[in-house]
Amino acid sequence: MVKLLNKISKILFPMLGVCCLAGTLTGCSLLPMEEPELKPPLVQPVTESLTLFEAKKANIAKQITGVATFASDKMDYLFYKESSGRLTSFNVKLGDKVHTGDVVASTETGDLEMKIRLQEIAIEKIKISMAQVIADKGGDDPDVRLKMLDYESAQLQLKSLRSQLERSTLVATVDGIITYIEPMKLGDQVSAYKQLVTISDPNSMKLVYTASSQNDLVGVEINMEVNVKIKDKSYVGKVVQTPMTAPISDNKTVQDKNSKSLFINVPGLPAEVSIGSQADITIVTEQRENVLVIPRSGLRSYMGRDYVQVMEGESRKEIDVEKGIVAAREVEIRKGITEGQKIILNN
Question: Which pTM was predicted?
């Protein structure tokens, strides 16, 4: 019996081991397969892009460039000296030629002309009455004296009425061309001392350059040379008036214009140049030769400090500098850096 049990165990135990192994393998195949862990991507280091400029010696000039217009330097500005009603007529347009005495504009007068005529009639009656008194009573009679006083009073009234009528018209005081008209419509109220019309003498012209502000003209002086270009031909002019040398004027419009304008005399102009013609101008106000120059984008400023950034090896360094002439695109550096240093520009 014992021998029989030993034989059975020798047969069953290996079979049970095989079954357990098969079950284990079968169970593993039913579970999901785990994905392999991904490695993080490699991050490339950021490369800083710098624009460098080697400081070098060069010539530099500070200059004013722009477009100037030929205008008369003898102009008459017409305006009413008092607010005198509403505008009833404008008899000129831009470019018109006028002569001394021409009526340029008029304002309403109401029944003023009728009052003048009635006053003229009243004066005529006084004269007739005075003549009759003299004939009847003689020249020494008191009634004659009274008539003479009536006549003088009537004359003063007539003069006042005629003066009112004259003040209702704007009259050309010189011969010339209309170069400015205030944009007004008929019926608009006329304001005292507001410039309405400008008359210019075409026989006396200057080239006028008007800047945005007086600061743009700093450095310009009388008799400075001006390069003037008209239709691809160059002429040499001279500055004859700056904001600092402009004559004092009671006209605010003239004051404002003179405060930011240059007047340039250009000899030998071609015949086709007239009031309103334009020309390109260049005025060199300051220049130096063979100095250290860098682009303006290389100069940095903060709280009154001027400095540059230079590249030394793989690192940058800030250096305080003293600037000289500041031109449109370049700047002179007088102290702080030397020729050949690599300046980092602002992008």
Answer: 0.57
Cα 210–216–217 angle (5° rounding)? 75
Exposure b/e, 8-25, CB count within 10 A at least 16 = b: eeeeeeeeeeeeeeeeee
Reading the chain (347 residues) residue by residue, the pLDDT tens digits are 445 445 545 555 555 454 444 444 444 444 556 666 666 666 666 566 889 999 999 999 999 999 999 988 788 888 888 876 888 888 898 889 999 999 999 888 888 788 889 989 988 998 888 888 888 887 787 888 888 888 889 899 988 888 777 778 889 988 889 988 888 888 888 888 888 898 988 888 899 999 998 888 989 999 999 999 998 899 999 999 999 998 887 777 778 888 999 999 999 888 889 888 999 999 999 999 999 999 999 999 999 999 999 998 888 999 999 999 999 899 999 999 999 999 999 87
